[in-house]
């Protein structure tokens, strides 16, 4: 076993979740993550807590979406709802053999299911939770790396001294919390919105400190919520994204008074449009995030990592997090990244009122 796996398990269980004696922890994972799952399972038991293990594997979802009737897709899973209401925390480990196994599935059917289980997702988000992507060959291929290189990338992005990282990111939070108007200027981009009276959250892989209840590993971002009806202007995203197994590139969006008035993409625009029609809030902006992870310096086709690239910002269509005092509701939340580094996207600036926060990928505060 890779000697770093027990270290990752310890970060997940102790730092991210803070598992305590007597708690019930839901652990969901793909079977390829078996070495990490065993370490997490052991630690939960050693803490005197009670693990509930939910294992999955590739092939199940394509079968479900191919054969399920509309009635089944719309069915609310009462047992799953009961379980999520009665656990204290959740740990979710993603490890697909093929991340594109849903590529041929009708996106309307996926959206139908997303709407049916939105209440479960709402409860889960208000628990202490963490999400981690275990390194697999599928993600390594998209990143243009060997599996060994990808493992090194993933583990290095997680093994920061998170307590030392927090003060650095709190400087950014201070500027955002005191600010009103944000303006983002870059190539084919001039977007502005208000964040007045919203709350910026420091993502330092800690989901149990009281500041926020959930986190990703790796973490390393500061995020807040735009005031929905104040979004105006246009933005051209640097990197493609993947939605339900389909790659979408060349995304450009334009807003007027918070409403999405134009959306373009070079590839699979219909898939993006379908996502944005999930519900009334799906096409509105729910998040502004700022990438702060110094060990993530390149695009790897995985939003969990890409949104934290040092020197980038991302905005999300859909759900606004309650931690940020956001009010936009949606069953979807889709992050898209704009790189402000001249060597990666042409350069750019982020202003908060009269304070220059970022210039060409470098923090100015």
Short synopsis of the structure:
With 365 residues, the protein is an alpha+beta fold. The chain contains 13 helices and 20 strands.
Task: Describe the model.
This protein is α+β, with helices and mostly antiparallel strands and 365 residues long. It folds into two domains: 4-158, Thermophilic metalloprotease-like; 162-363, no CATH class. The protein is built from 13 helices and 20 strands. The chain has an eight-stranded antiparallel beta sheet, with helices on one face. The protein has a five-stranded parallel beta sheet with strand order 2-1-3-4-8. Helix 1 packs across helix 2, helix 5 packs parallel to helix 7 and helix 8 crosses helix 9 (147-158). The radius of gyration is 20 Å and the shape is globular.
Furnish the topology, listing elements before pairings.
Layout lengths: L3 H14 L6 E7 L3 H13 L3 E7 L3 H8 L2 H5 L3 H8 L3 E6 L12 H10 L1 H8 L2 E6 L3 H7 L3 H12 L3 H17 L2 E6 L2 E6 L6 E3 L10 E4 L3 E4 L7 E5 L4 E3 L2 E3 L3 E5 L2 E6 L4 H8 L8 E7 L11 H4 L5 E7 L14 E7 L2 H4 L2 E5 L2 E5 L2 E2 L2
Parallel strand pairs: 1-2, 1-3, 3-4, 4-8
Antiparallel strand pairs: 5-6, 5-18, 6-10, 7-9, 9-15, 10-13, 11-12, 13-14, 15-16, 16-17, 18-19, 19-20
Helix pairs in contact: 1-2, 5-7, 8-9
Could you name the ranges where pLDDT drops below 50 across 5 or more consecutive residues? none
The helix fraction, in percent, is 25-40%
Q: How many domains, as an integer?
A: 2
Could you say which overall geometry the principal axes of the C-alpha atoms support? globular
What integer is the average pLDDT? 94
Question: How many strands, which pairing sense, and closed or not: the largest β-sheet?
Answer: 8 strands, antiparallel
* Class from secondary-structure proportions: alpha+beta
**Number of helices, counting only DSSP H or I runs of 4 residues or more:** 13
């Amino acid at each position: 076993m890779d000697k770093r796996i027990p270290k990752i398990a310890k970060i997940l269980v102790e730092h991210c979740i803070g598992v305590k004696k007597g708690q019930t922890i839901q652990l969901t994972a793909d079977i390829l993550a078996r070495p990490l799952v065993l370490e997490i399972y052991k630690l939960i038991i050693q803490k005197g807590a009670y693990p509930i293990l939910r294992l999955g594997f590739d092939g199940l979802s394509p079968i479900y979406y191919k054969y399920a009737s509309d009635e089944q897709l719309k069915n609310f899973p009462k047992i799953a709802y009961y379980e999520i209401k009665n656990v204290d925390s959740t740990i979710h480990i993603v490890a697909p053999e093929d991340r594109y196994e849903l590529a041929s599935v009708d996106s309307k059917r996926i959206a139908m299911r997303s709407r049916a289980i939105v209440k479960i997702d709402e409860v889960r988000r208000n628990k202490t939770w963490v999400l981690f992507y275990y390194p697999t060959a599928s993600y390594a291929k998209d990143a243009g790396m060997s599996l060994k290189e990808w493992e090194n990338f993933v583990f290095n992005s997680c093994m920061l001294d998170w307590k030392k990282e927090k003060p650095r990111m709190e400087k950014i939070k201070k500027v955002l919390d005191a600010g009103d108007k944000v303006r983002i200027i870059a190539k084919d981009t001039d977007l502005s919105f208000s964040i007045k009276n919203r709350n910026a959250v420091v993502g330092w892989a800690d989901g149990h400190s009281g500041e926020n209840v959930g986190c990703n590993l790796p973490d390393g971002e500061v995020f807040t919520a735009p005031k929905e009806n104040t979004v105006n202007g246009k933005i051209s995203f640097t990197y493609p994204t993947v939605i339900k197994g389909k790659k979408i590139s060349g995304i450009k969006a334009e807003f007027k008074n918070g409403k999405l008035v134009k959306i373009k993409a070079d590839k699979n625009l219909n898939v993006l449009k379908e996502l944005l029609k999930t519900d009334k809030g799906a096409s509105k902006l729910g998040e502004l995030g700022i990438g702060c992870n110094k060990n993530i310096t390149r695009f790897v086709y995985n939003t969990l990592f890409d949104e934290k690239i040092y020197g980038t910002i991302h905005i999300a269509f859909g759900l606004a997090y309650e931690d940020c005092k956001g009010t936009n509701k949606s069953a979807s939340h889709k992050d898209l990244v704009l790189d402000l580094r001249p060597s990666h996207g042409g350069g750019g600036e982020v202003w908060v009122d009269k304070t220059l926060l970022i210039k060409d990928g470098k923090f100015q505060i």
